[in-house]
Amino acid sequence: MDKRSPVGVFDSGIGGISVLKALRALLPDEFFIYLADQARVPYGPRPIEDVRRFSVEMTRELLARGSKIIVVACNTASAAALHHLRKMFPDISFVGMEPAVKPAAETTRTGVVGVLATPATFQGELFASVVERFARDVRVLQHAPEGLVEEIEAGRFDSRKTLRILRNALLPMLAQGIDTVVLGCTHYPFVIPQIQAIVGENVRVIDPSPAIAAQAQRLLASAGLLNLHGPGQVRFFTTGDPERLRLQVGTLLGEDSEVEGL
Fold first, then answer.
1. How many CB atoms are closer than 10 A to CB 252?
2. SS3 category, 110
């Protein structure tokens, strides 16, 4: 493994591209492998044992392709499998998604914050631990927007169904005084404009992607694995339809990228 080895990134689908964008902005010289498990998206409603198994399979695929660090760009997979992955692969560093409850709790003015995430994320020990450590004095409202990942995965950011799901999630939270919305799923940043339109400009929406990118940078630097001789590039892989992901990448990143199937 050397500095020019790739950074591996995986998600159930396109959600992790929100994290990939932040990674590329901070680490423009790095090579990335992005793996979307679209044959099994979404992870959120699945049993934790299944998500853990899928995460091990994705990790093995990325390691087989020489990844020097792995970013679990999926809140559900992080909640279900991050601890397990670190025990199973002790020689590799992992960066996982953690709901940004801490910065929300530190900056809320009303003392009420809302979190949007999948059921598996809310059920995991990671979320409970974050709330216990950082939000004891804050009221944390939770909502799992059923069907939202599927709408985003299909590129229907402005569909009636997407907007209905978001309103059903956010309007009751607004009525209870939230001034901050935490995005606990990497798919959700793609509908930040829609969320902001519903909650208004006085409610802060927190996308954790920049913080995840910063953590990846710190781990690479501490291990002496930062690549400073770019330009970087990305290879995309999917367990689903390569042409579908190619079109999605074009929409989300404005790039015509080659996508390989597994």
1. 15
2. coil
Nearest to 27 by CA among 190, 187, 207, 220: 220
Q: Look up residue 215 and give its two tokens.
A: 């953590």
Q: What ranges make up the beta strands (E) of 112-258?
A: 112-117, 139-143, 180-184, 204-206, 233-238
Encoded amino acid at 47, one letter: P
Q: How many other CB atoms sit within 10 Å of the CB of residue 71? A: 29
Q: What is the largest CA-CA distance in the chain?
A: 52
DSSP state of 226: -
Query: Any idea which residues carry the catalytic annotation?
Result: 74, 185
CA–CA dist 97, 142 (Å, integer): 17
Write the pLDDT tens digit of every residue in 193-216: 999 999 999 999 999 999 999 999
Confidence check: pLDDT of 186 > 90 = yes
Taking only the tens place, the pLDDT of each residue in 131-168 is: 999 898 999 999 999 999 999 999 999 999 999 999 99
Q: How many residues does the chain have?
A: 262
Segment 51-92, tens digit of pLDDT: 999 999 999 999 999 999 999 999 999 989 999 999 999 999
> In 21-30, which positions are buried (b, 16+ CB within 10 angstroms) versus exposed (e)?
bbbbeebeeb
One-letter amino acid for residue 68 of the chain: K
Which run of H or of E encompasses 69? strand 69-72
Quote the CA–CA distance of 43 and 50 in Å, as a whole number: 9
Query: Nearest to residue 65, comparing CAs of 114, 9, 111?
Result: 9
For residue 255, count other CB atoms closer than 10 A to its CB: 11
User: Any idea of the CA torsion for 151, 129, 138, 74, to the nearest 10 degrees?
Assistant: -20
* Between 125 and 133, the higher pLDDT residue: 133
- What rounded mean pLDDT belongs to the chain? 94
Task: Tell me the one-letter amino acid at 146.
Answer: E
